[in-house]
Amino acid sequence: MGEDGKSARTSVPPTVTADPSTLRRAFLKSLGAGAATMLALDVLEEARAPTRAAAATVAPPPAQSAAPPPPLPSDGVQDPLVRMQAELEQAMRKPMDQRRWGMVIDLRKCIGCSACTIACVAENKLPPGVVYRPVIDEEIGEYPNVTRKFLPRPCMQCDNPPCVPVCPVGATYKRADGVVAINYDQCIGCRYCVVACPYNARSFDAGERYTDATPAVSAVETLPAYEYGQARTRAEGASPVGNARKCHFCVHRLDAGMLPACVTTCIGRATYFGDTSDPESMVAELVGKPNVTRLKEELGTQPRVYYLL
Hints:
The protein has helices at residues 2-10, 20-57, 80-91, 115-124, 192-196, 251-255, 261-264, 282-287; strands at residues 101-106, 135-142, 145-152, 172-174, 180-182, 202-204, 244-246, 271-275, 292-293, 305-308. It is of the alpha+beta class.
């Protein structure tokens, strides 16, 4: 038995029977490293304590309000609509006979999107066959050098309108501000004015609807239009059905202090509108450009719509 125990003791690996003093030094060394680490953490925590205390005493920041609107462009370029709107409000403070409305269309900017045509139809609830502001699409040149040009053609609001004297009942007349208008209650639908207009700017309302071939009438077609400031719903036998119709520069919008619908919806800012009697207005400046022209000036109609080439 003793011999077995002796043999067992002699078979222990050398690492187990290492010198006790060596093991003691290793233990104290590891204990010293851990103590140093703990001491360093305590010092760091004490260093952070004042900062945390100061942060705790600081009141939380107030809730942020909505972001302010973006500043105006640094180049100072103003949207023409902003200027035209301000000039319109200024012109509306003058008596009607001192205002002379005019329109300038920059053909270099027109892209033929027909946004003005659609806006006019929506604003005036125009039926099929009645168009106040078509955009004429023309192909010019010879292959392969072919291009397209677009010509918006509203009523020219002529100073010498040939449509006025041919009306047998005086339904077509010229307002003091230069707009050629139609009295729907007096119009008898003879269409003399339609034939007399050299710009093909007049239409006849035959009473058609977009939903004529469908079982029901669209609710949109039953909404009233506010041309000339009068609410009218299209119905058989009632004006404006059976009347001549035309562009009127959206006089109902002008009276409410708003620009014509075709002007505000032009995505290329190609249409300008304002009081040409004001020499400081944008349209007055554009009318004086050397590249301005009017349609069929040789007829002596003196149109109030100008084009920039």
